[in-house]
Amino acid sequence: MGGVRGAGPPQEGFTGVLIANRGEIAVRIARTLRGLGITSVAVYVPSDAGGKHTLEADIALEVPTYLDIEAIIAAALDSGAQAVHPGYGFLAENAAFARRCAEAGLVFVGPPADAVDAMGDKIRAKATVAAAGVPVVPGRAEPASLEDWSDFPALIKPSAGGGGKGMVLVRSAAELPEAIASARRTALAAFGDGTLLIERYVQNPRHIEIQIMADTHGNVVHLGERECSLQRRHQKIIEEAPSPFVGPETRARMGAAAAEAARAVGYVGAGTVEFIVDGTTGAYHFMEMNTRLQVEHPVTELVTGLDLVELQLRVAAGELLPFGQDDVRLTGHAVEARVYAEDPARGFLPSGGRVLALREPGDPGPGVAATASPRGGAIVRVDSGLAEGGAVGTAFDPMLSKVITWAPDRATALAALDRALARTAVLGVVTNIPFLRALAAHPAVTAGELDTGLVERVLPELVPATQVPDELPSEVLAAAGLVFHAMPQGDDPWDITDGWRAGEPAWTTWRLESRDGVHAVQVRGLPRESAEVRIDGDAVPARIRIDETPADTPPGLSGGARLHVTVGGRTERYLCARDADTLWLGRDGASWALTRHLIGDPEDRPGAAAAGDGAVRSPMPGTVLVVKAQPGERVSEGQPLLIVEAMKMEHTVTAPHDGTVSQLAVQAGQPVDMDAVLAVVRREPGDSEAMDREA
To answer: Which CATH code, of 3.40.50.20, 1.10.760.10, 3.20.20.80, 3.50.50.60, is assigned to 16-109?
Structure first.
């Protein structure tokens, strides 16, 4: 079926809508508002000033935090908006916010507050939908006793929680007491409510969710299912629609059950009913209902041709749904991958930095009506909150963008996703793009043999060891050496390092450090024509051509450039950007940062970073939470020195070897960048035996 775009603004005449969110979802909502001729109002905190969502909106107003209900209400009223769209996260499922909007005379673009309350509590939600005849997972909730549960394996969940936080898998009665204590601690810390429930753990589970839409006139329809089984630590990574596991009859039954769950609480607007499905028997059970728009909603838009944000606005304005259940058609297949600021090679720790250069494929989405009624071929859509020059910190969710593809069939959609990810480059920030490509191409994924534990089981295949120097591609080192060699090192044109001498050209040595170590890259000749390169003593014939540099790029490639690098007869194209002495290179979705060292630096030797020079570096951008050591203190290998926190994740930084803390560069409460030196542990003479063993 076609989209509803083009019918004009909602009948009740919203002329302005405030978006109580940030990042890619705020950008996405603003674009639908623009298409409807409705003024979009963004809010931002000081650290987000100039963010992409503020530039996409017609009006942008500062607020203290995205959780400050009164400030957001005041901003909406000051702007003249009649409605507030919460997006997802922050206040999207906050019943108090929905009620406060109503008190202020603003329309909350979401369900009634009572429906948010009913579905926000897992225990109450299960009871409500079970009474409506929807199948639920057998379980027990407090205040009943959980300690004498006997049906294992079992899953303990915080009643007030979401996003998998606090869930604990229990395989035997012996594990139960500690699991309950652990889940309760997490629930109290994360949600302020330690109430728990325990459920039978479904073997070989698939996570299938149904998108529903309901209006104020009692009409409820479902828009098919999404498969969300590709998860890590209960967090979704890649989603698709329709599910390769669900057939038409099961889809109809699950859709009817989801619609009944919505009717049971008087639901209005867009919502998602999540089911856990037995991958062997196909039996399905209600898990929870998300009373908001979902991150993965674009895959539903692409297979239905509907703009879900537009439908939310029309329903909020009191309009009837413009179609019935029999009108809904699913066409083709859509897949979405979430691009995160995280480092898979470091245990998926959060990353951050400034976006030095950015390339994103496809349409900026949505244009949903235009892109969701395809006529042959594949479609690429990108929902993104990224902009060149923007800062990516650790104060908010690490999701940066979503790359979504549609094609007539699943195999073509997955292949298109891989190509789109390969054409995505974010320089200045480490991302999970190579991990996403490996996951999408895994044989179990391409075969549709999915379950919620698959990613964890195959993780070693998806994230191979990357911490050894030999695994850094030689062509990347050659490219970095050539780029540094080609750039003037000062204002004097004689500073160009062409290596010219009376006789034959001389070698110029560059010491380049990556996360894998410090390498000696020697270059002689003219790199833009032909040059000789030696990497750690090995000869590599190479040359580069700088194809494209934006007109406003400052000297030194700091705004991004496209390079063709030929190494050993093979030419590869790179995106390149420079930040002071660090050069970023991107290719095929991967990126590398290489920092130029001064000659004579103590770390100026191949493999220095891997060998352990005593420098203790931050594993992620964040804030120093606790300092456990003092200058001059004697420490042992593995002893905790500091705790760094980012995205509510704590990471303990330990001593790399026995020694004495000779430097302590930070204090509690101090923000730090990834790889910033936090401390230095110097070996003492008595530690020579350990040093000899390491050597």
So the answer is: 3.40.50.20
Average pLDDT over residues 68-77: 98
- Structure letter (DSSP) for residue 181: H
Rounded CA-CA distance 259/272 in Å is 10
Question: What b-and-e string marks burial along 584-615, b requiring 16 or more CB atoms within 10 Å of the CB?
Answer: bbbbbbebbbbbbbeeeeebebbebbebebbb
CB 158 within 8 A of CB 179: no
Give dist(CA 262, CA 116) in Å, integer.
Answer: 11
CATH of range 474-596; options 3.30.700.40, 3.40.190.170, 3.30.230.10, 2.40.50.140: 3.30.700.40
- Owner of token pair 């057998």: 138
**Cβ–Cβ < 8 Å for 653, 620:** no
- What CATH number was assigned to the domain covering residues 205-462? 3.30.470.20
Mean pLDDT of 200-221: 94
pLDDT score for 376: 54
Angle in degrees, 0-180, between the axes of helices 23-36 and 308-316, rounded to the nearest 10: 70
Q: Class of the 139-200 domain?
A: alpha beta
pLDDT tens-digit map of 235-248: 899 999 999 999 99
Domain range list for the chain? 16-109, 139-200, 205-462, 474-596, 613-682
